Amino acid sequence: MRGDTDNYRELFLNDVPMMDARAPVEFAKGAFPGVVNLPLMNDIERQKVGTCFKQHGQQAAIALGHQLVSGEIKAARLQAWSDFVRAHPNGYLYCFRGGLRSQIVQQWLHEAGIDYPRVVGGYKAMRHFLLETTEQAVEQCAFVLVGGMTGTGKTEVLAQLSNGLDLEGLANHRGSSFGKRATPQPSQIDFENALAIRLLKMRAAGIEQFVVEDEARLVGRCSIPLPLFQGMQQFPLVWLEDSLEGRIERILKDYVIDLCAEFIAEQGETGFAAFAERLQQSLVNISKRLGGERYQRLALLMDQALAEQARSGAVDLHRGWIEGLLGEYYDPMYAYQRESKAERIEFAGEQRAVVEYLLQRASTGKL
Fold first, then answer.
1. Any catalytic annotation for residue 95?
2. Which of 95, 141, 222, 260 is catalytic?
3. pTM
4. For FRET with 34, which of 130, 162, 307, 337 sits at 20 to 30 Å CA-CA?
């Protein structure tokens, strides 16, 4: 029989299957990628046991738990755990602290003739390990930022680099006011966990220098972990450039063509209406910063473009509001940012040159 483990590094590096015995409400707040939630108690049962523990102590709470999870309920949960074990014989189970709940699951499985190991320290210890993983990477590794005007293709640069760390991909958000995807963002804890695991795996592959996009603290509603964000205020910067035409075409593809396709794939017939509403709401969200006259003008251009797209499928009219938004809103803001960060910029150029520079930078181990 395999024993219980506290080797969190190996668990995450090898994507070891894990069964989370916490209640659904705990799991929803934060979990690890690929983990399956098969709780000992549901949310109501957990709440009742917790109240009993506060009022009457541990023994009474344990007795109530056994009473609540008995008979057919216990049999159904035991069946679900047994199915998981058969499907994942090399896996582990855990609860919040690796204590009573995972021990009970382990005991009931044992009584059913199945020995299955658990993670010592549970979710709390693994979560702490991942937070430390991110902090250590920031302390011990080199980072370089990719900055540039909106639409220059910073994510495309990261995709061409083995040491590219795509924060927007992990956050399922494109980072700007228009960055929401058709599918929801992960919870804050899920985002942090996924980022730490990505760092862990990249470092295990020998990568000690990372390239990340120059982001604000929030990527949508996901907040970049403080140690990394603080580091980003000092990391050297590479500035990506492209023509206005190239940027308009890229934004048209990402924020209109591809986003529309995402919504239709997710929602079918109602997808286009949801896409149009999302685009219009994104403009509303920055209307105060745009000012009344500018907002009304760009909103009219957007409405006309959406009407034509709905009628004929043509997207050409979208270039009007995109160009206006870049020239009158985003570009002045980014020009100011570039000026404020000028002393940190060590290279500037178009995509191919930037990729070549970053590849060379990684190969020479420049810090």
1. yes
2. 95
3. 0.91
4. 162
